[in-house]
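User: My instructor asked us to take a sequence, write out its structure as C-alpha coordinates, and then describe one feature of it. I'm not sure where to start. Here is the sequence I was given:
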Amino acid sequence: MRGPYQGVVPDETLAAELIRRVEEERRLAREARSVPGAIGRYRIGRCRDDNARALEAMVGRHGWPTADLVGEPASTAALMILLHAPDLGFQLTCRDLIAEAAADGGCPAVHHAYIADHCAVALGQPQFYGTRVDPATLAPYPLRHPMTVDERRRDVGLGPLGEQLRALRGGLGGVGGAESSNGL
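Assistant: Let's start with the prediction itself. The C-alpha coordinates for your sequence are:
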Protein backbone atom coordinates (compact mmCIF):
# COMPACT_ATOMS: atom_id res chain seq x y z
CA MET A 1 0.00 0.00 0.00
CA ARG A 2 1.28 3.45 -0.94
CA GLY A 3 1.56 6.23 1.59
CA PRO A 4 -0.88 9.07 1.12
CA TYR A 5 0.21 11.05 -1.91
CA GLN A 6 3.95 10.60 -1.31
CA GLY A 7 6.59 10.88 -3.99
CA VAL A 8 4.15 11.50 -6.82
CA VAL A 9 4.24 14.55 -9.04
CA PRO A 10 0.62 15.45 -9.86
CA ASP A 11 -0.50 15.75 -13.48
CA GLU A 12 -0.78 19.53 -13.53
CA THR A 13 -2.82 19.68 -16.74
CA LEU A 14 -5.53 17.38 -15.41
CA ALA A 15 -5.43 19.09 -12.04
CA ALA A 16 -5.87 22.54 -13.55
CA GLU A 17 -8.78 21.38 -15.70
CA LEU A 18 -10.63 19.82 -12.76
CA ILE A 19 -10.19 22.87 -10.57
CA ARG A 20 -11.16 25.24 -13.41
CA ARG A 21 -14.35 23.28 -14.01
CA VAL A 22 -15.42 23.38 -10.35
CA GLU A 23 -14.62 27.09 -10.11
CA GLU A 24 -16.76 27.73 -13.22
CA GLU A 25 -19.70 25.88 -11.68
CA ARG A 26 -19.33 27.90 -8.46
CA ARG A 27 -19.24 31.14 -10.48
CA LEU A 28 -22.42 30.14 -12.33
CA ALA A 29 -24.10 29.23 -9.03
CA ARG A 30 -23.27 32.67 -7.60
CA GLU A 31 -24.65 34.34 -10.73
CA ALA A 32 -27.81 32.22 -10.58
CA ARG A 33 -28.48 33.38 -7.02
CA SER A 34 -28.37 37.01 -8.15
CA VAL A 35 -30.53 36.39 -11.24
CA PRO A 36 -33.17 33.84 -10.28
CA GLY A 37 -34.98 31.88 -12.93
CA ALA A 38 -34.64 29.24 -15.57
CA ILE A 39 -31.62 30.75 -17.32
CA GLY A 40 -29.34 30.34 -14.31
CA ARG A 41 -30.54 26.78 -13.68
CA TYR A 42 -30.02 25.96 -17.36
CA ARG A 43 -26.45 27.30 -17.30
CA ILE A 44 -25.59 25.31 -14.18
CA GLY A 45 -27.15 22.17 -15.64
CA ARG A 46 -25.22 22.58 -18.89
CA CYS A 47 -22.00 23.17 -16.94
CA ARG A 48 -22.58 20.04 -14.85
CA ASP A 49 -23.29 17.98 -17.95
CA ASP A 50 -20.11 19.26 -19.63
CA ASN A 51 -18.09 18.63 -16.47
CA ALA A 52 -19.45 15.09 -16.18
CA ARG A 53 -18.56 14.29 -19.80
CA ALA A 54 -15.04 15.65 -19.28
CA LEU A 55 -14.63 13.64 -16.07
CA GLU A 56 -15.90 10.52 -17.76
CA ALA A 57 -13.29 10.96 -20.52
CA MET A 58 -10.55 11.50 -17.89
CA VAL A 59 -11.59 8.39 -15.98
CA GLY A 60 -11.61 6.43 -19.24
CA ARG A 61 -8.04 7.52 -20.03
CA HIS A 62 -6.44 7.63 -16.57
CA GLY A 63 -8.72 5.92 -14.06
CA TRP A 64 -10.10 7.85 -11.10
CA PRO A 65 -8.19 11.15 -10.61
CA THR A 66 -6.64 10.24 -7.27
CA ALA A 67 -4.67 12.60 -5.10
CA ASP A 68 -1.62 10.65 -6.29
CA LEU A 69 -2.43 11.54 -9.91
CA VAL A 70 -3.69 15.13 -9.66
CA GLY A 71 -3.11 16.29 -6.07
CA GLU A 72 -5.67 16.36 -3.28
CA PRO A 73 -7.42 19.66 -4.24
CA ALA A 74 -8.01 18.46 -7.82
CA SER A 75 -9.08 15.00 -6.63
CA THR A 76 -11.64 16.72 -4.40
CA ALA A 77 -12.74 18.79 -7.41
CA ALA A 78 -13.25 15.55 -9.36
CA LEU A 79 -15.44 14.26 -6.53
CA MET A 80 -17.51 17.45 -6.60
CA ILE A 81 -18.01 17.05 -10.35
CA LEU A 82 -18.99 13.41 -9.83
CA LEU A 83 -21.53 14.26 -7.13
CA HIS A 84 -23.25 16.64 -9.57
CA ALA A 85 -23.06 14.29 -12.57
CA PRO A 86 -26.45 13.26 -13.96
CA ASP A 87 -25.51 9.61 -14.66
CA LEU A 88 -25.98 7.30 -11.68
CA GLY A 89 -24.30 4.45 -13.57
CA PHE A 90 -21.14 6.52 -13.94
CA GLN A 91 -21.33 7.51 -10.27
CA LEU A 92 -21.60 3.85 -9.25
CA THR A 93 -18.60 2.92 -11.40
CA CYS A 94 -16.55 5.73 -9.88
CA ARG A 95 -17.72 4.83 -6.37
CA ASP A 96 -16.00 1.49 -6.80
CA LEU A 97 -12.85 3.11 -8.24
CA ILE A 98 -12.75 5.57 -5.35
CA ALA A 99 -13.20 2.76 -2.80
CA GLU A 100 -10.21 0.97 -4.32
CA ALA A 101 -8.11 4.16 -4.41
CA ALA A 102 -8.98 4.99 -0.79
CA ALA A 103 -8.08 1.47 0.33
CA ASP A 104 -4.73 1.81 -1.47
CA GLY A 105 -4.04 5.22 0.07
CA GLY A 106 -4.44 7.04 -3.25
CA CYS A 107 -7.17 9.40 -2.08
CA PRO A 108 -8.81 10.40 1.20
CA ALA A 109 -11.28 7.88 2.64
CA VAL A 110 -13.80 10.68 3.07
CA HIS A 111 -14.13 10.82 -0.73
CA HIS A 112 -15.53 7.31 -0.65
CA ALA A 113 -17.89 8.26 2.18
CA TYR A 114 -19.41 11.07 0.12
CA ILE A 115 -19.94 9.08 -3.07
CA ALA A 116 -21.09 5.94 -1.24
CA ASP A 117 -23.78 7.93 0.59
CA HIS A 118 -24.72 9.82 -2.56
CA CYS A 119 -25.25 6.59 -4.48
CA ALA A 120 -27.11 4.92 -1.61
CA VAL A 121 -29.57 7.83 -1.35
CA ALA A 122 -30.03 7.91 -5.14
CA LEU A 123 -30.83 4.18 -5.04
CA GLY A 124 -33.31 4.62 -2.17
CA GLN A 125 -31.04 2.78 0.26
CA PRO A 126 -29.84 3.88 3.70
CA GLN A 127 -26.57 5.79 3.71
CA PHE A 128 -23.52 4.69 5.67
CA TYR A 129 -21.89 7.93 6.87
CA GLY A 130 -24.67 10.50 7.11
CA THR A 131 -23.13 12.91 4.60
CA ARG A 132 -26.43 13.47 2.80
CA VAL A 133 -28.93 15.76 4.47
CA ASP A 134 -32.43 16.51 3.22
CA PRO A 135 -32.41 20.27 2.54
CA ALA A 136 -36.12 20.57 3.34
CA THR A 137 -35.85 19.08 6.84
CA LEU A 138 -32.12 19.46 7.62
CA ALA A 139 -32.23 15.85 8.79
CA PRO A 140 -30.00 13.13 7.37
CA TYR A 141 -31.51 10.80 4.82
CA PRO A 142 -32.04 7.33 6.36
CA LEU A 143 -28.95 5.75 7.89
CA ARG A 144 -27.75 2.16 7.88
CA HIS A 145 -27.08 1.16 11.49
CA PRO A 146 -27.56 4.67 12.94
CA MET A 147 -26.17 3.68 16.35
CA THR A 148 -22.68 3.20 14.86
CA VAL A 149 -22.66 6.04 12.30
CA ASP A 150 -20.26 8.17 14.35
CA GLU A 151 -17.73 5.32 14.43
CA ARG A 152 -17.85 5.06 10.65
CA ARG A 153 -17.62 8.84 10.31
CA ARG A 154 -14.59 8.95 12.60
CA ASP A 155 -12.91 6.21 10.55
CA VAL A 156 -13.00 8.44 7.45
CA GLY A 157 -12.15 11.72 9.16
CA LEU A 158 -15.62 13.19 9.68
CA GLY A 159 -16.85 14.62 12.96
CA PRO A 160 -19.88 13.31 14.85
CA LEU A 161 -23.15 13.57 12.93
CA GLY A 162 -24.90 15.35 15.80
CA GLU A 163 -22.33 18.15 15.78
CA GLN A 164 -22.66 18.51 12.02
CA LEU A 165 -26.43 18.73 12.22
CA ARG A 166 -26.32 21.31 15.03
CA ALA A 167 -23.92 23.45 13.00
CA LEU A 168 -26.02 23.06 9.87
CA ARG A 169 -29.24 23.96 11.66
CA GLY A 170 -27.51 26.88 13.34
CA GLY A 171 -26.53 28.24 9.95
CA LEU A 172 -22.81 27.56 10.37
CA GLY A 173 -22.56 24.69 7.83
CA GLY A 174 -19.44 22.94 6.60
CA VAL A 175 -18.34 21.45 9.93
CA GLY A 176 -17.78 17.73 9.64
CA GLY A 177 -19.16 17.25 6.19
CA ALA A 178 -22.85 17.17 5.30
CA GLU A 179 -23.11 17.44 1.55
CA SER A 180 -25.91 19.97 1.48
CA SER A 181 -23.96 22.37 3.71
CA ASN A 182 -20.51 22.42 2.20
CA GLY A 183 -21.04 22.21 -1.52
CA LEU A 184 -19.84 18.66 -2.07
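For the description part of your assignment, you could build on this observation: Residues 173-183 have pLDDT under 50 and may be disordered. Try explaining in your own words what that tells you about the chain.
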